[in-house]
Amino acid sequence: MADLNLRDDLQTSFDAVSKVLHALVKFMIARGITYPAATEMLKAVFVNVANSQFALVDKPNTDSRTSMLTGVHRAEVKRLSTAAARNSLPAKSTAISLGAQVVARWISDPIYTDKRGKPIPLPRIASNDSKPSFETLVASVRTDIRARPMLDEWLHSGVVELDARDRVHLKVQAFVPKKDLPEKLYFFAKNLHDHVAVSVHNVLEANEPMLDTSVYYHRLSSASVETLRKLATEVGMRAIHEVNRLAAELDRLDGAGTAADQRMNFGIYFYSGPSEPNGGTASPPADAALRRKRAKRK
Known about the structure:
Layout: H1 2-30, H2 35-53, H3 63-70, H4 74-81, H5 83-88, H6 98-108, E1 122-123, H7 134-141, H8 147-157, E2 160-162, E3 167-170, H9 181-204, H10 222-254, H11 286-297
Antiparallel strand pairs: 1-3, 2-3
Helix pairs in contact: 2-3, 2-4, 3-4, 6-7, 6-10
């Protein structure tokens, strides 16, 4: 019976990972990442994760143990564990985009917001009276970047607009790059990694779960989905603004203290698409379905 339960658990895990991979494989095919290239990348990731997160407490993993954990041949483990192999991998981006930082400052810093916490229109050029301007906003984030090129790009992409008094108005409430592919991929990797990491934590760890919840229905009209999308965007952005405002305040208070060694990521998403049979490739557990029915009755 134990072996049967283990097989069932393993198959369920396979099914769950397969569903996640469907979305990633769509991205890889669209970006020209072939199966052989993905296989090589996946082997390297298996070895890296086994060595960094499944190491023994008192000593590093041996190639044999890493091979046993991952199923990657020992010779391949040795090759992928070398410094040359690690150095051949693309460098990770560590800096949040300048555009995202500027927008975050604009919607959170009391200098650039009104009494209701809304971003204020900013004079395009700094004046001698030390009042906030678009130039001082950009300089508060990066002193080596000129404000004019950023303004031109943002005007072109619709992030901001200029009024008759030469003031810059923020038109979006969160920075979403439209054309800059490296910037898009930075947020793609960061947000998807962190969301998956939360879900993995909640499945594998016995301690307090991290926030990861959603509302899903699978028999709705297009009009109803659009109504829900607008509501989700409105309430979601309010939550983003509130968390961002407090995070910016705490960031200023924490400064460069030695205890300031943690990061956080809070996000929202809304997905819609054609209904799947039974609401997905697999039915949710019976207790989850029962909770959903009770919630609908309230």
